Structures are given as structure tokens and as C-alpha cells.
Amino acid sequence: MITCAELEERVADYLHGLPSEAERRDLERHVSGCGGCRHFLAAYRRTVWVARKALETSSHPGQAPERLVQAILGSLGGEPFCR
Amino acid sequence: MLDDTAKGRETALLLHLRSGDKLATERFVREHAGWMLALAQRYVKDAGLAEDCVQEAFLQAFRSIGEFEGRSALKSWLHRIVINTALMKLRSRRCALERPVDDILPHIDRECCRMQASWADMATPHEILERKEARDLVVAKMMELPDSYRIVLLLRDIEGMSTEETASALGTTEGAVKVRLHRARAAFKALVAPVLRRYV
To answer: Looking at the whole model, is its pTM more than 0.90?
Structure first.
């Protein structure tokens, strides 16, 4: 059985899918019997979710400034593919 | 994943871009520069530096467009180029002073990984994050994280890179990525919780 400290160490891998099924089962067994780690995991998940959600929904970018577009087109103009 | 129609459109576009079609190039730049700029800014923060990233990313993309094999969508390919360009920019100014995370979060100590249960028990922030004002505040808090923490959070949690890929992108070890990610999430949570509580 893994310890709380080991769970904390491996929590990122756990959320992103551990390489082995045995490891995942080991972690889940620990979490099912440890209230502290259950809370910890829930908090961790929520943090990741909030970060994703905020960036996903706030990134409706507008147009790039015309100055930048012109600078890009200008620099691409010198490239062989744009002649 | 692109469907067949979208794939066909991309193939046609690629032909135009590779042949140097100026009109197609301009349309392509206008279509993608906006989101690329927003993406670069998440990484480098500085608006001017983000513009440099986008310009360099386009240059790189066009230089290697002949080698683009179409295994991923063109947009995903550009996305990756922007991130790599931004990481290179950050690496080159790594010597710049960076506040350690403890400076902005003095209460974070060895127990930092034990986030308070209140966060998990808080009313669902789904509705809260529907508000643009709240989202902007959350993003602003993320931008307060020191570069080294914010970048790990972005690469792992937002881009979904593996620990190994993140370590390789940052030129560090997997162990260092894990530790930093752990602290970055704890720091982010500590910064964001008060913001979200305002809306509960």
C-alpha cells in the first residue's frame, strides 16, 4: 500500500493516466481509505480544471494588430516560398 | 482530428502556401496570427516579446512547410511551433530576475501540497467561470505565477504534455517537473481561491 506522501508525489501522473494499471489500483485503494487524500485529490483536480476552463474560455483572441500582420508578411516576403 | 473535407481543404491550402501564393499566405497569416499572439502571451507575458514570437513562428513554419507531413492539423502544428518559440525566448532571458514562488505565497511551506479541503467543497465554479470578469481574474492570477511555475502548469495541464515531454521542452529532469508542477498548482490554487470566493 502506498503512503500519503507517495500519492502526493505521483498525483500528476495519476491525473494524466499512470503507466501501469497496478499502480493506478494501488493509488485508488489508498484514496478509498484515506479521507485526507480524497480531499487532496479533489482539490487538485479542481485546480487543474479551473486553470483549463479559464484559459479555454478566455482565449477568444481578436485580430492581431495590423502592424504585426504587415511585419510578418514583410518578413515572409524575403523567403523563397513567397516570391 | 480533421474530417475528410477539412483534410482536403488543408491539403489545397498547403499547395497554395508551398507555391508561394501571396494571397493565400496573407489570408493564412490573418487567420492565425490572433490566436498565436494570445498563446505566445500566456508564455512570455510581455506583449512585444509575444509579437516577436509570432513573427518568428511564422518564419519557422514557412521555412519548414515543405516538411509538414500533415499527420496533425496545420493549426496544431503552428500551436507547437509558437510554444517552442516562446520557450526559446524565455530560455534566452532566463537570467532575468524571477521572484521565487514563496515570495508571493509566503504561507506555502513543506505542507503546501495539502490543499485545503474548502477548495474542493466550494460551490461549483462552472457558473462563476461563465463570467468574463471572473475568467479574466483567474487568468491574471495565473500570470502572477513566476515564469518557471506558470510554464510547467501550461505545458502539463493546459497543453497536456507528458512529464517526459515537458522535461525535454524545458531542458530539465522529470523529477524537477513533478515538483514544480505540484507547487505551481498549489500556488495557483492559493491565488485563485480568493478570487472565486468573491463570486460564491
So the answer is: no
